[in-house]
Specification:
Elements lengths: L4 H17 L9 E7 L2 E4 L15 E3 L18 H10 L5 E5 L2 H9 L9 H7 L4 E2 L8 H6 L8 E4 L3 E6 L2 H23 L8 H14 L12 H4 L9 H12 L10 H4 L8 H17 L1
Helix pairs in contact: 3-6, 4-7
The structure holds zinc ion.
């Protein structure tokens, strides 16, 4: 569906209001963008509360982040570099949202990834949320810290900073931010009540199948979660955390996102179909058994 520049700018303002009213940012924090084509993006301005933007403040920039049209006093967010990294590495992504939702950000500050498989909706629609290494805002440190996670995740916590989510359109990206915060809240409450109980691997596998049936866009790490399950054991009753311990990091690629520089540990297969993935995982599992 064709949307005029004005309509896109208006949508960015509406999402800004939601993010601000939800308490996902304070003062002038946060930034988000939409990709129009390879060399055209709309980005929120710096130094403005995202809850009070008007369409004229939204900046139109090129693939280097330079203004394509002069825009009065409004300058694009200096964090746009971080967005560009996502667009470059994930051609399926057309919108990126960065905010500081308080509970998810607290997990990012405590260094606790959102990697426990605790509820069906989060597994189906969000996956898991790893933590990227700390970097100085507005430098290339943050974009680089994202690299290891971009092929398997649609939301990433930024250590001691906040969260980043992305998707095939602005609403999808925003909903993933909302889901990340909701998931963090549930995990926080569950821990106050004595700790979460994870959904067993065999059940997680069924949820991942459902996700496929629903045609949920984006990436999901769970296919690689438990090599046993994905090699054919539908009755696997281990928790994903136990599976990770049993099979170790190399085969349990879902957890690679939660280790420093995981890409060095586990070269995540990209663009591979499930069958070749299963074959590969089975081979690795057998290797483990034969050790
Ligand atoms: Zn930030």
């Amino acid at each position: 569906m064709f949307k005029s520049d004005y309509e896109i700018k208006k949508e960015l303002c509406e999402v800004g209001k939601k993010i601000y009213n939800d308490g996902f940012v304070a003062a002038n924090d946060g930034n988000f963008s939409v990709q129009i084509d390879e060399n055209t993006y709309f980005v929120t301005p710096t130094g403005v509360s995202k809850g009070f933007m008007t369409p004229d403040m939204i900046c139109k920039v090129d693939g280097q982040g330079n203004l394509k049209e002069s825009n009065g006093p409004w300058k694009p967010s200096s964090e746009f570099k971080m967005h560009l990294k996502v667009y470059q590495k994930r051609p399926d992504v057309k919108a990126v949202v960065h905010a500081h939702p308080p509970i998810a950000t607290s997990f990012a500050i405590a260094g606790i990834p959102l990697d426990k498989l605790i509820m069906p909706e989060a597994i189906i629609f969000l996956g898991a949320v790893p933590i990227a290494q700390y970097g100085t805002p507005s430098t290339m440190e943050i974009p680089e810290s994202l690299e290891p996670y971009l092929q398997d995740y649609d939301a990433i916590l930024l250590a001691n900073h906040g969260a980043l989510s992305f998707g095939c359109d602005l609403n999808t990206a925003f909903f993933r931010m909302e889901s990340t915060e909701f998931y963090a809240k549930l995990l926080f409450y569950a821990r106050m009540l004595g700790g979460e109980k994870e959904i067993p691997c065999g059940e997680v596998k069924k949820l991942v199948e459902l996700r496929k049936q629903f045609g949920v866009p984006g990436k999901h790490p769970m296919e690689k979660l438990c090599p046993g399950c994905y090699a054919g054991d539908d009755t696997c009753a281990m928790s994903p955390t136990e599976a990770n311990e049993k099979y170790g990091m190399e085969t349990s690629a879902a957890y690679h996102g939660f280790q420093p520089l995981p890409s060095q540990v586990c070269p995540a297969p990209q663009n591979k179909d499930l069958e070749s993935l299963v074959a590969e995982v089975t081979k690795k599992v057998l290797e483990q058994y034969n050790k």
